[in-house]
Amino acid sequence: MRTIPIFFLLGLLAGSPTPAAAQSPQLDHFESKIRPVLVEQCEVCHSAALEKPMGGLRLDSREALRQGGASGAAVIPGQPGQSLLLKALTYKDANLKMPPTGKLPDNVIADFEKWIADGAEDPRSTEAEESTGGISTKKQEGPGTPIEEGRKWWAFQPLTEHAAPKTSKPDWVARKIDSFVLAKLDESNLEPSPAADPRTLIRRAYFDLIGLPPTYEQVEAFAADPSPEAYAALIDVLLDSPRYGERWGRHWLDVARWAEDHPTSESTNGPHPYAWRYRDWVIEALNDDIPYDRFIRMQFAADLLPGFEPADMRALGYIGNSPMYHKDPRLSRDVIETLTSDDWDERVDAVSRGLLGLTVACARCHDHKFDPITNKDYHAVAGVFASTWLVKRPIVAMDPAAADKLVWDHERLYRVKGMLGNIKELDTIAPELHPKVAEMDAEMKELEAKLAKDSTPLTHAVVDCGVWIDGSIPTVTWFDLRPGQPRDLPIFIRGNVANPGEIVPRRFLTVFAEDEPEPFRQGSGRLELADKIVGTAGPLAARVWVNRVWGWHFGQHIAGTPSDFGTQGERPTHPELLDDLAARFVENGWSLKWLHREIMLSATYRQDSRHLENAAKTDPTNRWLWRYAPSRLDIESWRDAVLQVSDELELRVGGPSEPVDTECEARRTVYSQMSRGRPHAIFQLYDYPDTTQHAPQRQITTTPLQQLFVLNSEWMEYQARSLAQRVYQIRDAGEKITALYRRALLRDPTAEEVDQALSFLAAREATVGHIPWPEYTQILLSTNEFIYLH
Amino acid sequence: MAAPLARHAPAYGRAPLSRRAFVESLCGGFGAVGLAGMLGAGTGPNTVGTVPIGPHFAPKAKHIIFLFLTGGPSHIDMFDPKPTLQKYAGQRPDSADLRTERMTGGLLPSPFEFKRHGQSGAEISELLPKLSGIADELCIIRSMYTFNPTHTPARNLIHSGNIASTRPSLGSWISYGLGTENQNLPGFVALSPSVGSSQHWRAGFLPAEHQGTHFNHSETDPEKMIRYLRNTKLDAAAQRQQLDLLTTLNRQHREEAGSDAFLEARIQAMETAYRMQFEALDVFDVRKEPATVREEYGTTDFANGCLLARRLVERGVRYVHVYYGPGQPWDDHKEINSKLRERCPDMDRGAAALISDIKRRGLLDETLVVWGGEFGRTPVSEAGDGRDHNPYGFTMWMAGGGIRGGITYGATDDFGFQAVENRVSIHDLHATILNQMGFDHERLTYRYAGRDFRLTDVHGRVLKELLA
């Protein structure tokens, strides 16, 4: 049945009411008990201050209240039983519950009943009094940006290649990118910086593409032949390295908010032991340069695509490893449904901001206030996730029926265990549950015994399965899972699951459809959703991805808010460049490696990074790209680099994650254990993004606590000792210093630097009786030169 | 396009973007902003740091100490006497819906005697003799309520205004708004014996520098309390020599690389870290307090936390969250009476000593002390001698920081189950705390994921009646 929302109320506390002189007990009752509630609870949605009060109903004057809204009079004096206002407050009618934020206390409802029974005294004039609250006096906007209007927004336009603009220095232009950049520099009377010297450039390219420094020998070889051909060949070599996927896969893992457990780890949301398989798939996919559109499709629906191989199942970890909230089955149906809808919301948000730069989750409670995304659109997309369930699936070829059985046995065990973890104690108190609990206990033991014998390798994935909440037993809430049956969600009015409205078919966002969008018809609709994202919305998806890639190369984006391409985001600094690059990216088969070459072969990328006073005055944030902006290495690159130069780095590929800071753990940081609830201190210190939700980009901070790690941690001390040992056989102190510079800083020391080192070492020797080389090597590993990329 | 609702209203004063642009203008496009959370202003000509939003109006308080009783302390046994429970002991009157998430039995009267204390005549039970002695400093709110009956979501709510575990903590909002006063210490400190609740001091979408810095106050030795604080191999002189060479190399590199501000920022951060090793050794060592002071507070973990909180706010830390833990000790599902007898003396002594001590030092006016847990407990028994979670009505108190002392505000129903008079939500509490720190809670916003977020979301009322 369709719900007609009569009273939309938002539980907004809008300040104190204006007290009027009370003259009678009835008026007194109104002033003390009724008016404050109307002001605080109702008028934010139902007052003359709004251009369109919800349901056409105003509650801010006597006349308006008696006249009512779309459904008739809200209050009939003397007849509480006939007054819709009271009916809404009592929550007895499933379709008429106000305020939507929750039922008011019984005594407040009793106050309203008494007030109406006593004749609904109401001193307020026809002219609505201006509320004293700051919020409700503001004019309410219409329902977001109209779709038609919204379609004109730059981000929704088709991709177009643009002719290279005319510039002041055609000779400087190496790739098409450069013309666009130079044209903007010309406009601001800025000059591009000179080309970086070869030693700087090769270090930049190594860290950028593989997240590791080159060796001294590699630097010198390139410095001996820094020709454009040698540089292009260098990039090819790096792109072919298996280290490349470990670096760029890590970037993708940021977008995918990948981790191996949940914001909390409780009985119903235990950790994901096979999350590493998704990480490995991402690394392999990047190394294989799988076209980006296919890369996305696989992560939603690898199992439904032509050419599916069982190992592709790992791709489903994008949604399969989503953060999940704990759902104590003793909570009420509404609370469990709210928590479950929070899970769906997280996925809508991660997908829409991550892949499309759209803040669709803003439209959860109402139409988007700024972008052409409706409340219906939100629920249409959320329905795909309400029709999708997180399960473990096999990554080897299997008989489909056996695979299905295995999947659901594992699922059942995970859930039964989670429930028993919370309800066992109820067993003794709630006798009606006794048979059920005993049954589940037996089932759990049986499943455990059975699955213990099974060694099929599994990965965290998804299946098509509608999710409902079963509240039929009052003391315990269960999930009602219906494999193969999708669920179209009702609009949860104002985000309140207890107030369901019209059912919305699963489909894509209206703004991308010519007309009314077609409903999804295949299972949950996850493949159709992916098809829409890289198909109809492909131009936007390509822009968002190209902009992200640009940001990882340059440390700053063309559009400064990489996860918000809506009207509240920053406009691109170089709109034609972004458009042109995205168009050519698609034309070149959505190939990421093509995009790397295009960017890294440009003169823009190859600029020097030095700070130039005059240019910085004109453009302090380098938005016009007058230089390559230097940056601090992120935690992965820095840790991996320390390990590499001290010869500790173990380049084993893939497999289960390992701790990050033990001395014996020397694998690349991408293979470290990653927890949402308890991220390791070193990740927290070094700006690792929050994995409980999608993070648009990393923030780079410099804090004293980071330096405490550098100065004092046993890990650093161990690496410093290892580095010192690598030059153990060299006798001469000066030669030793040179060798250490070559290892750590990839260059020879200056004479001054050798002197400085020698006098430090002599002073320390005088104190401790021997030359403490590790104290010195720790300094080299701690330098700005080591941790900054130029 | 005008913003229709406060949640979408632009930030007051300097908008986050212009603030970021400012930082970037100093840092050449890279926010070396974390420094500011620790460094504050005034570290010389090359200062690099964030610009705090700054208060919207003159603040009443400069510091907050939040004493958090993890698990949900029983208001009925401490601050909210209910004679009706005696009358109906063991019964469940039909008139009252006393259902909570677990199976509960009849009404369980408190065995603890309540008396009126101080000039204000505040009713406090015999469990809390020391707090009774300073009753006139306390603003007791008996009508708190929250929105979730489960520990984790309710704790998330009281820390961040939302039941999800992803939003910025109250302390992060304060740090974001005001920055820090002490260049060698963090602005937001969490004192907890376990890291298991790190989501409670998360900066969420706020810049990472505003995350709470966690210290384990069950250790009294600062070296054990602060990770990587001390070098186990080198003494201060050796490390100074090391740092001198490092700084020399970094300065040479800076000249070579073009004098970007963030390069100097890391040099400064290194120096701060070096100094912090010694400052922290002093600040974080409560053993340096005179014996009389330690005697006043007691020497339990919680007492040490209270004392350390005082030492920190004295030195300019904005926000200290002290957890009574580990685990959730106040979650008294059974044997509540004997457990409260064991646990209350320690809490009572530490909390009361803190207030008396900071008052003597003239800090109470500018330090807001907040006391409470994620919810209260039921008037009905659970498992015969325990009490279940009660989000519908419970007690918290505040002291100092421009809050009126010696008042008892609001009331629960006859059973102590639901807040009925002058109900105070968690959002109201947050709005009031922000107000005391100089912020209009509707205007302290941060633009993230397409909209402006607030600690109080679309809720919250400043409890003007409680302000001094």
Descriptive notes:
The complex is a heterodimer of chains A (790) and B (468). Helices cover 45% and strands 5% of the residues of chain A. Chain A has 790 residues and is mainly α. Chain A has 4 domains: 1-140, no CATH class; 170-251 and 538-630, no CATH class; 258-534, no CATH class; 711-789. Chain A is globular, with a radius of gyration of 31 Å. Chain A starts with 24 loop residues before the first helix and ends with a strand. Chain B has 468 residues and is of the alpha/beta class. Chain B has 13 helices and 17 strands. Chain B has helices at residues 16-27, 34-39, 84-87, 129-133, 151-160, 170-178, 222-225, 236-257, 261-283, 291-297, 301-314, 336-360, 426-436, and strands at 63-69, 114-117, 122-125, 138-145, 188-191, 213-215, 319-324, 367-372, 376-382, 386-390, 394-399, 407-409, 411-412, 419-421, 424-425, 445-448, 451-454. In chain B, strands 1, 4, 5, 6, 7, 8, 11, 12 and 15 form a 9-stranded mixed β-sheet that branches. Chain B has a two-stranded antiparallel sheet with strand order 2-3. Chain B has a two-stranded antiparallel ribbon with strand order 9-10. Chain B is globular, with a radius of gyration of 23 Å. The chains are: A mainly alpha (790), B alpha/beta (468).
Rg for CA atoms of chain A: 31 Å
Largest sheet of chain A: 3 strands, antiparallel
Helix content of chain A: 40-55%
**Number of helix segments of chain B?**
13
Largest sheet of chain B: 9 strands, mixed
Overall structural domain count of chain A: 4
**CATH C-level category of chain B:** Alpha Beta
Shape of chain B: globular
Most extensive chain contact?
Answer: A-B, 103 and 100 residues
Number of strands of chain A: 7
Global geometry of chain A: globular
How much helicity do the residues of chain B have? 25-40%
| Mean pLDDT value of chain A | 88
* Count of the domains of chain B: 1
CATH architecture of chain B: 3-Layer(aba) Sandwich
The average pLDDT value of chain B, as a whole number, equals 85
Query: Counting H and I runs of at least 4 residues, what is the number of helices of chain A?
Result: 31
Poorly predicted runs of 5 or more residues of chain A: 1-22, 126-143
CA gyration radius of chain B, whole angstroms? 23 Å
> From N to C, what is the helix and strand string of chain B?
HHEHEEHEHHEEHHHHHEHEEEEEEEEHEE
